[in-house]
Design goal:
Chains A, B: Mg(2+) 2 binds at residues 44, 73. Chains A, B: Catalyzes the ATP-dependent phosphorylation of thiamine-monophosphate (TMP) to form thiamine-pyrophosphate (TPP), the active form of vitamin B1. The structure is a homodimer of 325-residue chains. Chain A is α+β, with helices and mostly antiparallel strands and 325 residues long. The longest helix of chain A is centred in the first third of the chain and has 17 residues, at 59-75. The first copy, chain A, folds into 2 domains: 3-140, 2-Layer Sandwich (60s Ribosomal Protein L30, Chain: A); 147-315, Phosphoribosyl-aminoimidazole Synthetase, Chain A, domain 2 (Alpha-Beta Complex), CATH 3.90.650. A 7-stranded mixed sheet of chain A has the order 8-10-7-11-9-12-13. Chain A has a 4-stranded mixed sheet with strand order 3-6-4-5. A two-stranded antiparallel ribbon of chain A has the order 1-2. The radius of gyration of chain A is 20 Å and the shape is globular. In chain A, helix 2 runs parallel beside helix 3 (96-112), helix 4 (164-172) packs across helix 5 (182-193) and helix 4 (164-172) packs across helix 9 (255-262). Chain A has helices at 3-10, 59-75, 96-112, 164-172, 182-193, 199-207, 220-231, 248-251, 255-262, 274-286, and strands at 20-22, 29-31, 37-47, 80-91, 116-125, 130-140, 155-159, 211-215, 233-238, 268-272, 291-299, 305-308, 313-315. Strand 3 (37-47) of chain A pairs antiparallel with strand 2 (29-31) of chain B, so a sheet runs across the interface.
C-alpha cells in the first residue's frame, strides 16, 4: 500500500466547517476557534482482540465504533463534535480497500454530525490493529457538563437503556443466545458494534444550569463513582428504575451485572437539580430522546454509589466488567 | 496495573497554560483558544519494531521521541506547541513504572516548551507497544508556514544537519561503526533516539512574509517533493551545500543516501524569498540556530526535485528509506 495514495483516497472532497483553514495534506491541520466557546478534545484507542475481534466486526464497524466512542466523550461534556483525526497501526496483511472501509465506517457517522476529518497517521504493524481517534469539539463558554458538578438532592438520570451492549457482545461470543427471533439478536449486536453517541441529550444538558455528566464506557456503576468522587457526594440508584431492554433478562442470568457493570453502552448518565430535571425530561420527550430518572444524589457517605433493591441497600463497587476474561 | 492509579500518577500537578479549563480527569479536556490565532493539531503514531526497538530504546526515549515528532509538525507550521494527549496500547508485560517512565520522557521535553498534558487513554494489548501522541498548538492568524507557499526564485534552506538520524540508527543496528571515539557514536545515536524539534526556527519563519515549510520525517527528498507538488514548482538543490556532520562519510558509504532519503532528522526544510532569506539567516545566526541555503526554487518542470552534483544534474525520486529492511 502506498501511503500517499491512501491519504489521497481518504481526504474529504468537501469540508463542512468553514473554520477549517488547512485539513489533510500539510504537517498539521489548522482551524480557527470561535469566540465565546471552549475547545473540547479527547482521544481513545481500540485494540484488536482487546476491544473488538475481526471474527465479528467488519472494518466499517471498527471505524464506526472508534469514532463513536470519542463523539460520546464530547457528548458527555455537553459539546458539539467538529473535527477528527485518525491514527492507525495496521497489520501488514490488511489491504488498502479494508483500510478505506474503516474510514468509510467513520465517515458514515461523521456525516451525521457534519464532522470533518482533518488529519492523522497510518503506520504498519506486524501484529494487532490499533485504531486511535482524536476528536475536537466545542461548547459555549462555561456550559460544559463536568463530573464535579453534582450536588445533594440532584436527580440521577440515564439515557436509553443499559446492558444491551454487553448482551450483544455475549451473543457475539456465543455465551448467550436469544430464544426467539434474530431481529432482537441483531439489535443487541448492533448496540455493541455500532453504539449511538447521545450528542443531542448532551446538548440539552449544556442548556441547563448545572449538569454533572458522564458517558457509559466502563459501566454505570463506574461512571457514577467518578461523578460521586469528583463532586464529593454519594449517589443512590434504585434497581427497579434501571432502563433495560425487555428481552435482556431472557438472554442470560447475568443481565443485572451487564446493566450495572457491562459498559460500552455509550449512553449518558448524570445528575441535575430537581427544578431543571422537569425541563430536561420534557425536552427529551419532545425530541423522543429516551431519558429516565434512576435515583438521587445524597450528602457524601462512606459509599460512593448505593444500589437499592427490593430486598436490600448495597454499596456498588467501582468495578468494570472484563469482557474477554 | 490499575488504570485509575496510573491516571493519577501521570496527571500533572501544575498547568502552564491558564487557557486549560479542564485537564485530565473528565471525559475530555477543555481549553479556551486565544483570539487572533489559528489552532494547529496533529497526531503521530510510533509502533514497536517498526519505529523503534526495545533493545536499544528505553521507555523514556520512546516517550521523548513520540512527543518530539509531533512538536516537530507544529514547528513545521511555524506554530507554538501548547497541549498534548497520549494514547498508549501497552503490552501486558509492561510494568507500571515502565509506563510512567515513558510519560517522564515526554514530560522532559514538554517542560522545555511549557506544554500541558491534557488527556489520553491507556489500553492493554497482547503484542507490540503502540504510542500515539496528539499535539495542539497555535499560530498567529495567517502566519502559518504551508507547503503550498513556495514560489520560483525562492531560496531553499535546511536547518541543522541531515543524515545523522539514519547514521545513529545504523550504529544502533550495528550496520556501521564509528572508527574513533564513542562520543561521536553517542551523538549520532542521540540524534536518532532523541530528535530536537526546531520550534524556534519555525517561529522565525512565521515572522517572514511567506515561508513554505516541512519537517524532515521521511527524508529531505520526500519533503521537498511535497513542497514542490503543493506549490506547483520545481526545487533544485546542490549536493555540495547539504549540511552533514563531518564524521558522516566515515561511517558508511551510504552516507549520501542517508542525507537525502534517511529521514527522521526532524530538521526543517523550506523555501523563502531572497529578500526575506537574509533576515531569516541573520536572525538564526543571532540565536545560534544552524540554517543553510541548499538550493533554489524554479518554474515547474517535469522533475519536482533536482539534485546538482559536481558531475551531473539528476532527478530525485520521492522515495523514503525503509530502515528495517
Amino acid at each position: 500500500m502506498d501511503e500517499f495514495d491512501l491519504i489521497n483516497s481518504i481526504t474529504p472532497r468537501t469540508i463542512h466547517h468553514s473554520s477549517v483553514d488547512v485539513g489533510i495534506g500539510d504537517d498539521a491541520a489548522l482551524y480557527t476557534a470561535k469566540n465565546g466557546v471552549q475547545e473540547i478534545v479527547c482521544v481513545d484507542t481500540m485494540v484488536e482482540d482487546v476491544h473488538f475481534k475481526l471474527s465479528y466486526s467488519s472494518p466499517e464497524d471498527i471505524g464506526y465504533k472508534a469514532l463513536a466512542i470519542n463523539i460520546s466523550d464530547i457528548a458527555a461534556m455537553g459539546g458539539i463534535p467538529k473535527f477528527y483525526l485518525v491514527s492507525l497501526a495496521v497489520p501488514l496483511k490488511w489491504t488498502e480497500s479494508e483500510i478505506k472501509a474503516m474510514y468509510e465506517g467513520m465517515n458514515e457517522l461523521a456525516k451525521l454530525y457534519c464532522m470533518d476529518l482533518i488529519g492523522g497517521d497510518t503506520v504498519s504493524t506486524s501484529d494487532k490493529l490499533v485504531v486511535t481517534v482524536t476528536v475536537i469539539g466545542e461548547v459555549e463558554k462555561g456550559r460544559a457538563c463536568l463530573r464535579s458538578l453534582a450536588k445533594p438532592n440532584d436527580i440521577v438520570f440515564v439515557t436509553g437503556e443499559i446492558g444491551s451492549s454487553a448482551a450483544g457482545l455475549s451473543l457475539l461470543l456465543k455465551e448467550s443466545s436469544h430464544p426467539e427471533t434474530s431481529f432482537e439478536t441483531n439489535y443487541f449486536i448492533n448496540r455493541h458494534k455500532r453504539p449511538q453517541p447521545r450528542v443531542s441529550v448532551g446538548r440539552l444538558c449544556s442548556n441547563a444550569q448545572r449538569v454533572a455528566l458522564n458517558d457509559i464506557s466502563d459501566g454505570l456503576a463506574s461512571e457514577l463513582h467518578e461523578i460521586a468522587e469528583s463532586s464529593s457526594v454519594s449517589i443512590e440508584i434504585d434497581e427497579s428504575l434501571l432502563p433495560v431492554h425487555p428481552d435482556l433478562p431472557k438472554l442470560n442470568s447475568k443481565w443485572k451485572e451487564w446493566a450495572l457493570f457491562g459498559g460500552e453502552d455509550f449512553e449518558l448518565t448524570g445528575t441535575i437539580s430537581k427544578e431543571d430535571w422537569d425541563v430536561l425530561e420534557q425536552e427529551c420527550c419532545r425530541l423522543q430522546l429516551p431519558i429516565k430518572k434512576i435515583g438521587c444524589v445524597r450528602e457524601k457517605t462512606e459509599s460512593n454509589v448505593i444500589l437499592k433493591t427490593e430486598e436490600e441497600t448495597m454499596t456498588l463497587e467501582k468495578k468494570g466488567y472484563n469482557h474477554f476474561k
